[in-house]
Amino acid sequence: MHTIGKVATLAGVSRDTLRYYEKEHLITPASKTDAGYRLYDDDAVRRIRFIKTAQHCGFTLSDIHELLTLKQADSACCEDVRSVAIEKKLRIAHKLQGLQAMSRALDELIERCAGGEAATDECPILAALENSLAEVAR
User: Fold this and answer.
1) pTM of the shown model
2) How much is the pLDDT for 133?
3) Order of strands across the sheet with 31-32?
4) 1-59: CATH topology
5) How far apart are CA 84 and CA 66, in angstroms?
6) Average pLDDT over residues 37-62
7) Domain ranges for the chain
């Protein structure tokens, strides 16, 4: 059994992160000491590493909770997990499209402006943004 500090060190996260994961029902202490200190087993360390790896892949804590639930469900199968991964991939692709559109818009704004010492009230980027806001407000 490990204290919260030891588990945090082993898993490479902060104590606050462990407390948050516990609050979000992603991990549970195996037991508590008579003084009320949380004690975690090696499974908790593995689970925290799973959570961090899943986050690195773009899964939210809600997604991870779903994955962990599927992992423990007798009625779940690999296809269920695959569906969650596909849904995440589609959301990421949608976000990427949005980011690419933002990047193109910024390219256009940057292209309009030569920079230099002109006053900001003559800046084509600021003017374009103001004009777009006026059009949206109509």
Assistant:
1) 0.72
2) 56
3) 2-3, 38-40, 31-32
4) Multidrug-efflux Transporter Regulator; Chain: A; Domain 2 (1.10.1660)
5) 8
6) 92
7) 1-59
